[in-house]
Amino acid sequence: MDIELTINGETTTVEAGSEQDLATVLRQHGHIDVKCGCDGGTCGASKVFVDGDVRMACGMAATEAEGSDVQTVASLGTQDDLHPVQQAFVDNFAVQCGFCIPGMIVQATALLDENPDPTEREVREALDDNVCRCTGYQKPVEAVLDAAGRMREEGVAADGGRPIGGEPADDTAMGKPADAGGCCGGGCDE
Amino acid sequence: MSDSDNASDLDDGPDGVRAEEEATGGTVEGAAREPDRKAPDEREAITTDEEKDDARQIVTGEARYTADYRDRFPDLAHGKVVRSDIAHGHVESVDTSAAEAMDGVYAVITPFDDVVPDTLYSSSGQSYPEPSPWDLTVLREHVRFVGDPVAAVAAEDPDTADRAARKVEVEYRERDAVFDPEAALDEDAPQLFETDDVENKQSGADYARNLESHFEGELGDVDAAFDAAEAGEGVHVVETEWETPYQSHCVPEPHATIAYTDEDDRHVFITATQVPFHTRRQISHLFDVPIRDVRVTKPRIGAGFGSKQEMAIEPITFALHLAAGRPVKLEMTRQEEFTALRFRHPMRMRMKTAVTEEGDIEAMDLYTLSNSGAYGTHGMTVANNVGTKPLPIYPRVPNVRFSGDVVHTNLPMGAAMRGYGAPQGHFAVESHMDEVARRLGLDPIEFRLRNAVREGDLDRSVAILKDDDRFERTIRSCGIRECVERGKEAIGYDDLDQPDEDHRHRGVGMALIAQGSGVAGKELGAAQVKMNEDGSFHLQVGGVDTGTGADTMFSQIAAEVLGCPPEDVVVVAADTDLTPFDYGAYASSTTYISGRAVKNAAEDAKERLLEWGATLLDEPPEVLDTGDGAVYSEETGNRVSLEEIGYEATYGDDEREHILGDGNHSTDESPPPYGAQFVDVTVNEETGEYDLNKLVFAADCGVAINPALVEGQIEGGEHMSLEYATSGGLSFDGEGNPEVQGFRQYGMPRTTDHPPMETILVETHEPTGPFGAKSIAELPTNGVPPALSNAIRDAVGVRLTELPFTDEDLRAALDARDGDD
Ligand code: FES
Ligand code: FES
């Protein structure tokens, strides 16, 4: 069946079988930044924003995403203009093989939007269902704390420089820009 | 213009005199133009935290792994494997008709099809001829564990392939199975292999007893030493036993392969492999096609940890491709990773030592019984490393014996996994040494340092299983004492606060660690440097970056030689059509072997740079060097940029040359990196629960080319080691059915399960390594089980000997202790 949804700011119609999960459908439509590392719902690699909430895309029927706003890690920044969370992952050497990283960055971004000044414990709890086999989680956790510091300094969340997920009108949604927000550099409609 | 070297020319006499010269600043042959040892302030591109070259692609989600290439193939078929659901038996018949009748099914293959060769092979990605037995076929008529591949399907989409696979009906003639390695050795046990089912070059095979290999080696006279100890005064004999479980690699990206045949009739594999060149050779062997007609490429890879040092799924993918006549992609599920792919071998070990009152070790005797599972890939070689990695920590012990049996059972196959036998071996040896010290009333750390390796030692135990002394090695770099000192300080060894509650006790344990740097005498790395006219370079290297950052490290080594920034070195790696040969990413060989080949290639190109610089500057090449993007004169300070040289060499009026360099590296050397793992634990004596307060790992990997990447290796290695100690393991029911099917049932530590980790790098200079580097990737996988066993012993006086340590185990040990009181 055909499903209409918005993916990284672009409204589009995709074909999906009634039993197909969202991760599979996104990947079939070229969104290879959505990774699949398990048979569903246990590794965190497929995390995306659906209407501002973090979801494991593999654990959700594609049909359930009808009409929703889906954002993947690719919406956050570009290689030349990284989102502060992405930049912190690069600068802190938090990526090794990288397979877990899209899901981890989506989750970390959501955390910092909700809690701009988390403790290390809070970061660890937020990432607890993102499995990573390469890093021992040490540098990813350091990266998230570093990103939090940078974002507070730069006031990124406050000025809406990088909205993620959510309708602009809904300011309770995680990751949404504040009203004054400018263009997100690829992740929004502006 | 070839620069090839073989570092065996560095072999020392037993006195190690040369080694000391080298360690104090000598130069390495083959690097004669400039000393290999650089003081920190002379380094430009090395020992810096150079950004990982693919980090930006990864964080933006643009990095492409094998399955992400699906969009390049509009007619791609999707594969699915049909696996045995019995532990032991023979396939009587396979009914594929229902599957074949389905719309969208392109091919169903069985062991009886022509496109499926019945040639024997080994899936181990090892050098030729593989030491592992050739005991596999692409699909299996004789199934030997629950999960053995019997048939496979290719269909238009994954769902159709799944449904078709479920419609394949297999009938078996079931046979008795055996699951315990000791029981499997019994003459009456079900036999997994007839002798002519296998080509086995390993020592001591006896398939009538399911014995894949038996091996033993001895230095001195161990029995005489124990006899003397038993008879005499003042020498204590201590014997201990240890047991380890299966461990899953939990490889982040499940195995994936795309196979197709291009318009030139060449067979191409895009595949998640650590060993492209071995895979090319093995595909050629198995399908009887010339090596030159096979191309194996490795895109980004979601790590390997040894699981992808296996040609595990490429043959099935290729057979499906031949049958379907279109490109085929086969991806494993997580369930297949946990049940049917590859694992760390479970083992039972026995360690016995004779030690004097003062703490001198007179004799060591280590035995291992390894459960190889259903097939023999890496069976003997992993078991060999149980001894040959940790025993060399104590190279001056005069009497040493090491022996082992590698046994088949009807369970999944063990294979290469990061550490490669060393994690099992270190658990036995380093827990044993701690126990000895405590029983003798010696300080466990002092006792070990008294006997531990020093620079200049001749290590014979590393070659204990070899027929000749070619692989005995002189230790040229060893920072193990500084690792211990700094680790002690970081963990607070000398002033540990005890908790206030009486039933909670805190303890610290330590394990000494060693690994190797490549397989001695069985490695080859090669690289080529090509200059571009703008002063940048392409580096073509066979070495395989499995996600560790090896490509970045290569660019740093090349840049350090060429005098340019690492970003000016474009790395093209691990493609059997485009890059020079390499044995692949295993045995901690990439920095030491492939990195040294890169250095040699860069030095070869540098000679040409200096010649061109000499012409352009009108000065003799002997006074010139590279640095800061130029060739400059040490005498006059004049300089000519690499870009000027590039344009002049390419487009000049008088003479033209493409500046190229090539380098090889092969060697009999495998210098050990060293480490010390510390664990700080608090045990609740009432419940048996324990909390890890902190992990400290201090590592001597020689010169760390990229310290941040090295730290990442250590933290990730410790993570696996933590799992091995506390939570990993597979279980099976009485029929051999796997009970662990996914992450939900498997105890992989999550973020919140990790105690704080502190990492310390102790720099030494390994004269045979590139700029003094040794390996790092496997070293940190070895330490937590022994260090935690030792820490618990320190805290509450009980010894845990079976991994993983559960609260129940600890509670039972505490009860036994109190019962004995
Ligand atoms: S693939 Fe979605 S959580 Fe693992
Ligand atoms: S970086 Fe490899 S799984 Fe996280």
Automatic annotation (TrEMBL), chain A:
Domain of life, source organism: Archaea
Annotated stretches, region: Disordered: 157-178
Key words, A-Z: 2Fe-2S, Iron, Iron-sulfur, Metal-binding, Oxidoreductase
GO molecular function: 2 iron, 2 sulfur cluster binding; metal ion binding; oxidoreductase activity
Signal peptide: none
Record carries keyword Iron-sulfur: yes
Domain 2Fe-2S ferredoxin-type: 1-76
Cross-referenced SUPFAM superfamilies: 2Fe-2S ferredoxin-like (SSF54292), CO dehydrogenase ISP C-domain like (SSF47741)
The protein's name in its UniProt record: (2Fe-2S)-binding protein
Lineage start: Archaea, Methanobacteriati, Methanobacteriota, Stenosarchaea group, Halobacteria
